[in-house]
Design brief:
Blueprint lengths: L1 H42 L4 H23 L1
Helix pairs in contact: 1-2
């Protein structure tokens, strides 16, 4: 029983570390998306097409990171 408890704690610790890595990745991608939006606000509407492409890429990265965190 002690061995099973020890293995369970080890598995939980490994899962927690992986969860923190995924959470940190999600936060970094969220920060990148916020930076892209701030960049757009600073340049105005004349760069819409450039902003839109960058924002879509940032959104897809953020969405992928969120999905990894959920699973």
């Amino acid at each position: 029983l002690d061995q099973l408890v020890a293995k369970a704690k080890e598995a939980t610790a490994e899962g927690t570390v992986e969860h923190h890595k995924r959470r940190d990745d999600l936060k970094a991608r969220h920060d990148a998306a916020k930076a892209k939006f701030a960049e757009f606000k600073a340049t105005g509407n004349e760069n819409w097409d450039t902003f839109k492409a960058g924002a879509e890429a940032a959104w897809h990265d953020l969405e992928a990171s969120f999905e990894k965190l959920r699973h």
